[in-house]
């Protein structure tokens, strides 16, 4: 394994990825929305190294928006299906749906800007809420561009990153910082969700 993991082999892999064409890059970032265990950061880095930083970011952006909006539409269309009610009626999901209906797009847009936010859950909850399709698509276009531009910028020029320890450390620190900030924002919003809904509940019972 260590013998295979060389700069040359990685560059050959990137070149083979490039030969598959931009449609493949779009497909990979789109399918990640439906299969959240796929590493979005790795896919974006592969795209910017295979197609160049500008085209790679555009390809990743298009694919990510398509996938996220597709999951949003699927959630909206089939959210009332009896077989999905166990998930839909989950306490956390219902809490998030009510809060999104109260607060609108602003907090969702903030979360979409970070690569380690729970995008899979965000897209589903947004689909189950009363947010208008056009508004959510606008939030996706803006939020995903910010997230992918930052991620792509950090991971561009794989050879330079892997051969320069300083750059490698900076990239690792940058990605780790994004993860920390994303989780901090997510925790803050979760606390705000609980506080706002408790306040609404008190008002309704008073």
* Unreliably modeled segments: 1-5
- Estimate the strand proportion: under 5%
For the secondary structure, the number of strands is 0
Number of helices: 11
Q: What distance lies between the first and last C-alpha atoms, to the nearest angstrom?
A: 65 Å
Shape: globular
The proportion of residues forming helix, as a percent range, comes to over 70%
Rg (CA only): 19 Å
**Structural class by helix and strand composition:** mainly alpha
Oligomer: single chain
* Main beta-sheet annotation: none
Description of the structure:
By secondary structure, the protein is mainly α. It has eleven helices and no strands. The chain has helices spanning 7-19, 22-32, 40-51, 53-78, 85-88, 91-103, 106-112, 119-128, 133-155, 158-163, 165-205. Helix 6 crosses helix 8. The protein is globular, with a radius of gyration of 19 Å. The termini are far apart. The model is unreliable at 1-5 (pLDDT under 50).
Explain briefly what this protein structure is:
It contains 11 helices and no strands. With 206 residues, it is an all-alpha fold.
Core attributes:
disordered N terminus, mainly alpha, 206 residues, 81% helix
Please write out the topology.
Elements: H1 7-19, H2 22-32, H3 40-51, H4 53-78, H5 85-88, H6 91-103, H7 106-112, H8 119-128, H9 133-155, H10 158-163, H11 165-205
């Amino acid at each position: 394994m260590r013998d295979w993991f060389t700069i040359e082999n990685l560059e050959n892999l990137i070149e083979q990825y490039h030969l598959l064409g931009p449609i493949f890059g779009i497909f990979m970032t789109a399918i990640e929305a439906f299969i959240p265990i796929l590493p979005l950061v790795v896919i974006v880095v592969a795209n910017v190294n295979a197609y160049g930083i500008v085209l790679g970011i555009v390809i990743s952006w298009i694919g990510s928006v398509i996938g996220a909006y597709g999951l949003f539409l699927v959630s909206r269309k089939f959210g009332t299906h009896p077989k999905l009610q166990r998930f839909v009626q989950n306490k956390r999901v219902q809490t998030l749906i009510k809060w999104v209906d109260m607060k609108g797009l602003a907090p969702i847009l903030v979360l979409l800007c970070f690569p380690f936010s729970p995008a899979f859950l965000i897209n589903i909850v947004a689909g189950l809420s009363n947010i208008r399709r056009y508004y959510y698509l606008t939030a996706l276009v803006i939020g995903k561009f910010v997230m992918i531009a930052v991620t792509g910028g950090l991971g561009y020029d794989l050879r330079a990153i892997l051969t320069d320890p300083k750059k490698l450390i900076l990239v690792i620190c940058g990605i780790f910082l994004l993860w920390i900030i994303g989780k901090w924002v997510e925790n803050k919003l979760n606390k705000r969700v609980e506080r706002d809904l408790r306040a609404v509940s008190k008002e309704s019972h008073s």
